[in-house]
Prior knowledge:
CATH topology of the largest domain: Rossmann fold
CATH architecture of the largest domain: 3-Layer(aba) Sandwich
Helix content: 40-55%
Strand content: 15-25%
Number of helices: 12
CATH superfamily of the largest domain: Class I glutamine amidotransferase (GATase) domain
CATH class of the largest domain: Alpha Beta
Number of strands: 17
Distance between the termini: 85 Å
Radius of gyration: 22 Å
Amino acid sequence: MPRHALVPLLAALALLLTLAGPAAAKPLVVILADARGTVATDLLAPYAILAESGAVEVKLVSATRAPVRLTPGFAWAAPQMTLTELTRQRRPDVVIVPALEVVDDPARAAWLRAQLKGGARIMSICNGAKVLAAAGLLDGRQATVHWYSRGRLSKQHPEVTWRHDRRWVEDGPITTTAGISAGEPATLHLLGQLAGEPVMAATAQRLGLPPPDPRHAGQDYRLTPRGMGLVVSNLAAFWRHEEVALPLSNGLDEIAFGTALDAWSRTYRSTAWAVGARSVTTRHGLSVYRAASLPERFDRRVVLPRGEAMVATFAQIGRAYGETTARFVALQFEHPYGAVSGW
């Protein structure tokens, strides 16, 4: 081919490449953690769902690189990025805020306000709504939160319309969810918005999760005299308190591990500890650590469930401590398994 004939061909190819542009970056979702304490299920379930989809980029971020205590049990996760590093690289499209041990942190609140102002969407999980309320992000909005916190927050933040009839509430760029168990369907709903319904449905199927349903009978969750009696009874029997071992291994299922660590530490009969290797890499790339010092002995070793982890974990607890304790744990998760109706 003559050299002059290549010129139009190369020009056309350059035009096509220009029109195509660079490959679009995946939406970036960051999960905001705090080394002083972050609820395990609130953090690990959204992380696992989004990472499993392959359609979004998800990162665990914190103010520092200090390991994040996964409460209420004993395990730690390593942040993948600090807030300073994130700011230098890219603005997040979505910020997820789990329930954090320290609710009111001025620096964190300022960072959250800046993200909202910059166009990011923000979603809290369970009592993560306390963090958003303390930062002034829920003023004049509708929101939801864990059933146990709703009464107190209604008094502390009367400018917020607190709802109990939805597992998650969307008001403009802010989404809030009800109790711990609402994090899974709310995250699936978010994934559907970011990547489309087919991606969401396929991800839910692979993880054994039901399709997201926003309907919720929040009035069915409350602390009854029976529940209070169970707490007193379990606490009084301190000699029966058990240390529960959760084995760490590479490729760990984040949802099953987070649910077990969380649930077994809410029985008022036991505390869950990560055991085994000092640190492992989970199925989707998080580094999880056990405590440097462990109890001298463990009373029970738990095998992590497969499939729908919450119901399976509640059933394990029921076999160990009785169905009333299992339902009380589910009540704390605000899961239908633990609805007060029929107790």
